[in-house]
Give the backbone structure.
Amino acid sequence: MKSSIKLFLVERTVWIVAIIGYLAFAIAIPEVFLKLTAIDFVIRSGASIGIVALAIAICLISGSIDNSVPAIAGFAGVFVTLFVSKWFPGTPWIALVILALVIGALLGALNGFLIKKIRIHSFLITLATYIVFIGARKLLYEGAERMPSEMINRLGGGEIIPGISYSTVILILLVILSWIFLNRTVTGVHIYAVGGNPRASALMGINVDSIRFRVHLLAGILAGLSGLLYVGYNRATTPEMLDFNLFDAFAMAIFGGIALSGGRGRIEDVFAAMFFISTLTLGMSIAGINVYLRQTVVGCFILIGIIVNALREKIRDRILMQLG
């Protein structure tokens, strides 16, 4: 019984940390974090990066790495904004959503194709495409361009009802759908198998290249949606878009317990990690802490989280051996 309780606590470490972190800010800044809308505000502000983290996490579970997800998001966001503001004004919002997903899918498929054909580590391939996609976005438009579609702006930063934002609902739905996909479908089971042991998976008849191609395709689709929500949240493109959020997204995935070696991790824990990092960033910003000190503190917490996560895996394996 004690071992089962220990296992539960170890497996839910990131959720415990996220809750404690939020409660700490609720005590320190009650006028902000004790409001009913505060949790929605935290999730909404981190939704775009959270979706990027989900995409990166799914790639890591498969044993692959995709550095280019934030760049795909940025390119899709700028392309769609220019499409409706300059090239085809009045385009229906649903067409813009589809366009963002298609752009993400195409760029994600390009990553998957290059990784499959060139057979160089995905880290190097996607690092190169990360630079290419950023350059292509800046060639399209380097400054800030207003998003004229009010519905897209509502999806990124508006509320369905008071206290519940569209982007919060979208992120939570994506987490639920990702969990179902990874845990209740054949492809999801194959993703974990390929990430755990690609050679054994191939011997079992699983097409490793096909699985990883699909993973990068899915990552691209999620990136396209992330870019659209980012533009909607800001009501415009920005010169940097999501360029500098690659480390944050990776940190959310690793802090959430996704193994860099592949084959292990729960996608719902990435959401908890996103909530914690978003709470930490917002709380320090509201408290007026110097931006450089904020970066230092967030970096230290992330480093501690990564170390704790590595220790957690060892403790978890030990407890499972005792239970077995």
User: Anything to note?
Assistant: The CA atoms of residues 62 and 107 lie 18 Å apart. The beta strands are 159-161, 164-165.
